[in-house]
Amino acid sequence: MDPTYADATAKRINPHIPHPARIYDYLLGGKDNFASDRKVAETLIEISPGTREGVRAHRAFVSRAVRYLAAEAGITQFLDIGTGIPTQDPTHTIAQRSVPEARVAYVDNDPIVSVHGRALLTGDPAGSTEMIEADLRQPEKILSDPAVQGVLDFTRPVAVVLAGVMHFITDEENPYGVAEQLKAAVPSGSHLLLSHITRDFAGHLSQEEFSKPYDNSSAPMVPRTHEETLRFFEGWDLVDPGLVEVVTWRPDPAEYQEEIPSGHAWAYGGLAVKP
């Protein structure tokens, strides 16, 4: 990595403002986070003792879905937005186990993710990976970015990965419009992999209590219902078993299933294909 780029990027990182990617990193057992991030994560654990296990269950869902896309659906191109810090197996690692030539463009708006991504996201030489710093709220900039255009061929099917990121887009920021722009940019046969935080299993908590830990972070959290999450897939055909709680999406008998103290991972996940 260019040290000049790393130094310039580091200057834009504010350790005092929690960021979802770093909070997630801490909950997954990573080390690329600050005290502000850890404080939010610990508050989440206080609210729900099963938060850490739920986050790991969510990550396992994403891994299973990416594995399905590469090994069974024949997808060789991935646009992963809201990538997060590569604490666990990132998308290209999973995909390239089945399809060495898989090509992945990663997008995140946290400078620290960009630094780590550029340093660590190397994969099979038969494939290709690229990391860009951009914001999901501006899909047109993502889609027109030269690095993204250089990695992905939008005339062929692409898997758009929106794992654990849409709940950081508020209603005022037009989340469904953002999703539709991304869906419109890819051809028939493309897939949408999406997961979303929900309060459906946390009736004992108010909306304010549920999302309060993120109030001072770089992005507030907006949990959505099953019906509201299902709307992101509108016009596309859901892959069996549809939009379900992440732990019940094609569970792998060979995969260790942690018991979640709260009983729920508090997240829906699904996969759909463009007709």
Automatic annotation (TrEMBL):
SUPFAM superfamilies: S-adenosyl-L-methionine-dependent methyltransferases (SSF53335). Signal peptide: none annotated. Keywords: Methyltransferase, Transferase. InterPro entries: SAM-dependent_MTases_sf, SAM_dep_MeTrfase_SAV2177_type. Transmembrane segments: none annotated. One of its GO terms (molecular function) is methyltransferase activity. This is SAM-dependent methyltransferase. It comes from Nonomuraea mesophila.
